[in-house]
Design goal:
alpha/beta; 2 domains
């Protein structure tokens, strides 16, 4: 009996330590194989308050999605600085917009266009579509897709590319699955390798929200591109 108690106590202790280490970002569920996913990147916003870009440029990352806007009028306070500094250290940049259910697609697209410069060799515009942090309104799938389509058409007119849709499994299953929208998917799955419910391909994978990189104070989201370095270069080209 004493031996059983000791074993259970040891198991519980290991579990507690594992939970603490996971919470602190020292261990995670996903470790994408560099040979399978050679192109790595981050996504950042004002939440990454302090970034030492000179240190960060030594990290093995190739791209950065940078939050630009939210809803119809909010502009991320760090966007201009993050956009410039990421370019200064040679990262391929993309700007993402947090899509809210409280504003029209047109209002939100105009906010994005007012904030994000048109430049060569950048990632397509990205739309963050998720429930977390959104307004309390819960419009129908048809209403969301209608406003999303308006946003997508307007930004494509400006930037020449269809937008990327960032989504969780929950919001993908609710709004996107089976719709064949034709937009590249950036999927968040911090527990396992993504597998979309409708078997559609994904283009980017956010595999942890508690990454750690030298040069960034605190956590940062880590991502990979699903393809080779050559395919990534083709993806960001004007005709990609």
């Amino acid at each position: 009996m004493n031996r059983l108690i000791a074993i259970l106590a040891a198991v519980i202790l290991v579990l507690i330590v594992a939970v603490i280490f996971f919470d602190k970002g020292y261990i995670r569920f996903n470790y994408p194989d560099k040979s399978e996913y050679p192109v790595h990147g981050i996504d950042i916003s004002h939440h990454q308050d302090v970034i030492d870009w000179d240190i960060l440029k030594r990290s093995d990352i190739s791209f950065a999605f940078i939050k630009s806007t939210e809803g119809g009028d909010h502009k991320d306070t760090k966007f201009k600085e993050n956009w410039k500094r990421a370019g200064d250290i040679g990262l391929v940049r993309g700007a993402y917009h947090f899509f809210t259910f409280c504003k029209t697609g047109r209002e939100q697209a105009l906010n994005y266009i007012d904030s994000v410069p048109l430049e060569n060799n950048t990632l397509p515009p990205a739309i963050d579509l998720e429930f977390s942090g959104n307004c309390k309104a819960r419009p129908s799938k048809e209403e969301v897709l209608k406003e999303l389509s308006v946003f997508a058409k307007l930004v494509k007119l400006k930037y020449g590319k269809d937008p990327i849709i960032y989504t969780t499994n929950e919001s993908y299953n609710t709004f996107i699955s089976g719709e064949n929208l034709g937009y590249p998917v950036w999927i968040r799955d911090v527990y396992t390798k993504p597998g979309l419910i409708d078997k559609s391909p994904w283009t980017f994978w956010q595999y942890t929200h508690k990454g750690r990189l030298h040069g960034i104070d605190g956590f940062v989201d880590l991502n990979v591109y699903d393809g080779s370095s050559e395919e990534f270069e083709a993806f960001i080209s004007p005709s990609g």
